[in-house]
Amino acid sequence: MKKLLLFIIITLTSIILSNTAFATYKFVVPQKPGGGTTVWAEIVSKELEKFLGEDIELVLIPGARDIPGFNEFHNNLQFDDKTIMVSHGGNGVSFLQEEVDYDYREYDSVGLMNLNIIVGKPKNENVDNPTIGACSGCVPEAIAITLLMCGPGKSVDEYISCFKDKVSWVSGMSTAERRLAFKRGELNVTRENPAAYRKHVASNDNAEVWFHHGLLEAITGFHLDDPNFPGKQLETLFKEKWGEEPKGEFYDTYKLVKSFRDGLQKALWIKKDSPYKNKIVTALDRMSADPASRKVFKEKVGNYQWRVGTYGDIQRNKLMTFITEPALKNLVKFNKEALGLASVYKPSLVWKKS
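The structure assignment produced for this chain is given below.
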């Protein structure tokens, strides 16, 4: 009996020690299994472990519009030195227009991928009457389509009126339903992140790229063409159609919301005084430069750059300068009056030049 008890104690101790060793670092992901950010976090954690030399555990906290997970990190989980938040573009849009607890300015960037959203359409068709499935993260697409359809030189009220006249914004569809509706021809516009576009749209012989939003250049604040989908940037198509570059307050609103959504589409955050930050940043830097890891990301996501450590902070700081009072107020106005989305104006976010 004593030998049996001793065996049980040794076995339980081994299990406890094994589990403790496994849960060295935690990635908090604000989604359920199978979500786009969850899949991305799985890829990153697997590659990063090779250079970190320690295990990473994924902690999934799903909820409405993926806000609860980030709020939980902000309020409780960030105080653990080895806990890292995995945020995505929808969190960036919510930060601008909803009451949330989290605030990007209060954490350090470990790193981020500078990504994009790709908008597809039926092959060889002109989209004169766009029909797109609604989603809270689709606000940049709605504004971009409005610019393309309605042209330059209009007031925000005129753009809202034009959107209602020319664009069908179909509510109540899940992501899977939107994808199926596009394949069936019930929608003539679809939008996906680069990895999902490769999987769900590029394989469709009856679809092609309509436009994309470009890649943020953090130092200048300009958006560059996406080398994975060259020649299809929104600004390029706008000039081809209307003979001039897009500009004005409504365009500034588009630049604001697309930049927060895409510039923070896949980002890693840690509390500012974590003693493990430099170790994680160093490992991420090595991973992002490693040919084998780069090949994995290129195959799964596309050829997109990592911005690691301080470079991620620079990108976050540049994004904050885009939050002008007119751009933010017009975003709230367009959300409410054109899209029917709950949206609040948050004057505390408006950037003040020092």
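Interim note for the steering committee: The radius of gyration is 22 Å. The chain has a mean pLDDT of 92.
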